[in-house]
Amino acid sequence: MFEQTFKNIDDVLWKEAGCTTELDYTEQTSWMLFLKYLDDLEHERAMQAELLGKPYSFIIDDNYRWSAWAAPKTKNGDFDHDAALTGDDLIDYVNRKLFPYLHGFKQRASSPDTIEYKIGEIKNKFSSGYSLRDALELIDGLRFRSQQEKHELSHLYEAKIKNMGNAGRDGGEYYTPRPLIRAMVKVTKPKLGESIYDGAVGSAGFLCEAHDFLRQKKLTTSQLKTLQIRTFYGKEKKSLAYVIAIMNMILHGIETPNIVHTNSLTENLADIQQKDRFDIVLANPPFGGKERKEVQQNFPIKTGETAFLFLQHFIKYLKAGGRGAVVIKNTFLSNADNAARALRRELLESCNLHTILDCPQGTFQGAGVKTVVLFFEKGAPTRNIWYYQLDPGRSLGKTNPLNDDDLSEFVELQARFADSEKSWSLDVADLDADSVDLSVKNPNKAEEAPLREPEVILAEIATLDKESVKILEGIRGLL
Predict the structure, then answer these.
(1) C-alpha–C-alpha distance, residues 207 and 251, integer Å
(2) CA nearest 284: which of 247, 328, 316, 324?
(3) pLDDT at 181
(4) Are 40 and 58 in contact (CB under 8 A)?
(5) Cα-based distances in Å from 151 to 91, 156, 162, 203, 211
(6) Neighbours of 309 (CB within 10 A)
């Protein structure tokens, strides 16, 4: 129903000078969707209040509501083209009046989990008031009234986020393949009433999939309220991802997501108290980034590697008995530097690292690194680690991505830590105490031929060169 509308919006954005990538398309679609959603929500709440004979106080003032500037209507309910601003007038209104008004909400918000806080975070990149007018009219045709409409919109929005992930290196930050997330959720088994946290929330894929997992059962009104208000928590550093995460969660049925726009790593781990902790951590933190020295001071194990700081952050944020599933570069398992070894020791001593899922090359589009998923429970040291080497039997790529069937055997075998051709267990007592090397070494597969030393290769090249010279000399003699 809404698919063509989304395509038409992309066509409008493609012509817009301020929007150059799939990331921009999704961000700009997001802020318009958000304001339209908010207008629908406010009118719905006002009608409910009226039926109950109660007053309703609108969050957005009359002049700044969607129905006033984005989509004014005639008395018949038709679009009022005479009253609708366009061209320079529209851009001037949006940049000089609307957005300064909206940004004021952040200062007035009582806490980050309020709609007011979310309103204060959105940004405009349109430079043409004609393009913006076209986009607004298309967005106005979308409806958020029924659960079915939200469900369809959420699928289309997920497709946009997936396209972002395929758009290149930067887009990959925001997109973790959904089949992988679903497998991580199934293994972690969240229960209603538990709190779920992602400190590098990106597009909120983990929280949305965990929500869908918990919504599979019939829930009471009280349980739905718990799911809405006291279950999902996240933090995101980048403005673009923050806005996308909010919209993604809203479309999945979470009206006021508990997402804070902040850099999780600026928090000092020593300040975290029991009340701040969560039952479950699900995350794919950014890796490769280099954090500044003052940020590193917040952590017991000092390192510039962003993913290693996040792993410390997640362990600290888990309650005793809490469960974590975190994607990380596979080099974490074997890196010989002091920080990596210290972090592996910390993980093994403070948590039961019960499962390591080894993901194949191509799992993440546009990312050249190989990854593993660490599954752990906080509070007891690791005795045994169960490994599973995921091998879908084909090369993964943009046209041949990971699917749920690829991970079904992993989920099934993991439930009983069963051995197979692709899975095995490691006794931590057998680890080298100095290196704490947790590398994936499948005992059921023959070892690949070791790489030769550079000197050997160079010597062979020199030998071949000599032979080539002799052959050429022989050919010359024949001429």
Answers:
(1) 12
(2) 328
(3) 96
(4) no
(5) 32, 9, 17, 17, 13
(6) 25
Mean pLDDT of 356-371: 84
The CATH class of 3-145 is mainly alpha
Across the beta sheet with 196-198, the strand order is 258-261, 232-236, 196-198, 278-283, 318-329, 371-378, 351-358, 384-389, 423-427
Residues 6+ apart with CB under 8 A from 318: 277, 278, 279, 280, 281, 324, 351, 378
Nearest-5° angle of CA 466, CA 470, CA 473? 135
H helices of 302-453, in order, are 306-317, 338-350, 404-414
How confident is the model over 225-278, as pLDDT tens digits? 999 888 999 999 887 788 888 888 888 888 778 998 889 999 999 999 999 999
In the beta sheet, which residues pair with residue 280? 196, 323
What tokens does 361 get?
């090359």
pTM score: 0.81
Which range, 2-11, 123-132, 361-370, 387-396, has the best average confidence (pLDDT)? Answer: 387-396
Query: What is the DSSP pairing of strand 351-358 with strand 196-198?
Result: unpaired
Query: Contact 307/329 with Cβ under 8 angstroms?
Result: yes
What is the spatial distance between Cα 347 and Cα 353, in angstroms, rounded to a whole number?
Answer: 7
DSSP 3-state of 90: helix
Cα torsion for 104, 106, 109, 112, to the nearest 10°? 170
Angle between helices 3-14 and 147-166 (to 10 degrees): 40
**Residue 174 in this model has a pLDDT that exceeds 60:** no
> Which CATH superfamily, name and number, covers 169-430?
Vaccinia Virus protein VP39 (3.40.50.150)
Structure tokens at 1: 């129903």
The kind and range of the H/E element at 280 are strand 278-283
